[in-house]
């Protein structure tokens, strides 16, 4: 039970990170290799707000999310929209976006190294015991999970109960058909990319409350987010949440029962197993 609960608590932040990449890749068709750097930036901003101004990291989300949204919108408009315009097909756009965001990854990583250095950083926030099902857990982990659930719930409501959310899902399903029903695909894609960046930054801010981080760890979380997105089915929010839950529990079980050094191996083993059973992902549509 303790392993299960710990894995579920971890999966909350994993889900936010993966939901961000789901919107960027599934809707905007941008394979953002710099997604992990957005997460690390969220960690550092939450740390800076807490240490310098004693702003609660949860309240800091109201600063971090809009800032990340605007920054990712600008990145899309300046660096990525020209790639979208010149791409003749989705395959070319994916290749071009991987190369562009690969360079962006090093740029963002360099700026964070310059600003914060290369040392590992953490801070004490709600570092106290919280009893749940007869076992003690970190209160910061519980609060981070609850905040992640609220954010994911708000995203679900936006996607499935608002007109703009319906447009986002339509573009994810078929951009060409979305154009035929008067949906501004370019504007919707930019908004989805920016929203994805905001979700990832929020995931980073929540992760920072109980995780030790540094400026160079972004690529590890980019790979985890990519694995979750593919496992769940590209562009499907429900699949990303379920895959994040599976990954969080699997990593916790392996770290607790076998060896913490094998968590990455467990991640890839689970990824391969899911793809062998369902190549299109848990909620993905089979290609015809």
Q: Ranges with pLDDT <50 over ≥5 residues? A: none
> How are the strands of the largest sheet arranged?
1-2
Helix content: over 70%
The CA-CA distance between the termini, in Å, is: 42 Å
Oligomer, anyone?
single chain
Membrane topology: Multi-pass membrane protein
Protein name: Branched-chain amino acid ABC transporter permease
GO molecular function, one term: transmembrane transporter activity
InterPro entries: ABC_transp_permease, BCAA_transport_permease
Description:
This protein has 288 residues and is mainly alpha-helical. It has one domain. The chain has 11 helices and 2 strands. A two-stranded antiparallel ribbon has the order 1-2. A hairpin with a 2-residue loop joins strand 1 and strand 2 (135-138). The protein starts with a helix and ends in an 11-residue tail after the last helix. The model has no long low-confidence stretch (mean pLDDT 86). It is found in: Cell membrane. Belongs to the binding-protein-dependent transport system permease family. LivHM subfamily. It is a multi-pass membrane protein.
């Amino acid at each position: 039970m303790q392993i299960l609960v710990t894995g579920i608590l971890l999966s909350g932040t994993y889900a936010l990170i993966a939901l961000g990449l789901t919107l960027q890749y599934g809707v905007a068709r941008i394979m953002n290799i710099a997604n992990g750097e957005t997460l690390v930036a969220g960690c550092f901003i939450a740390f800076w707000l807490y240490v310098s101004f004693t702003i609660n990291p949860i309240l800091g989300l109201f600063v971090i999310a809009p800032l990340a949204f605007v920054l990712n919108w600008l990145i899309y408009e300046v660096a990525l929209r020209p790639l979208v315009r010149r791409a003749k097909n989705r395959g070319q756009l994916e290749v071009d976006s991987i190369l562009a965001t690969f360079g962006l990854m090093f740029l963002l990583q360099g700026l964070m190294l310059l600003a914060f250095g290369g040392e590992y950083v953490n801070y004490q926030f709600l570092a106290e015991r919280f009893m749940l099902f007869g076992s003690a857990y970190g209160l910061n982990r519980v609060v981070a999970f609850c905040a992640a659930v609220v954010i994911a719930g708000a995203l679900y409501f936006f996607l499935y109960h608002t007109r703009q959310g319906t447009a986002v899902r339509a573009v994810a399903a078929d951009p060409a058909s979305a154009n035929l029903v008067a949906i501004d695909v370019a504007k919707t894609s930019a908004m989805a990319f920016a929203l994805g960046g905001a979700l990832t930054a929020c995931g980073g801010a929540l992760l920072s409350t109980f995780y030790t981080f540094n400026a160079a760890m972004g690529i590890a979380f980019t790979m985890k987010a990519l694995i979750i997105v593919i496992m769940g089915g590209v562009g499907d929010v429900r699949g990303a949440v379920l895959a994040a839950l599976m990954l969080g529990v699997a990593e916790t079980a392996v770290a607790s029962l076998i060896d913490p050094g094998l968590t990455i191996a467990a991640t890839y083993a689970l990824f391969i197993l899911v793809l062998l059973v369902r190549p299109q992902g848990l909620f993905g549509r089979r290609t015809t």
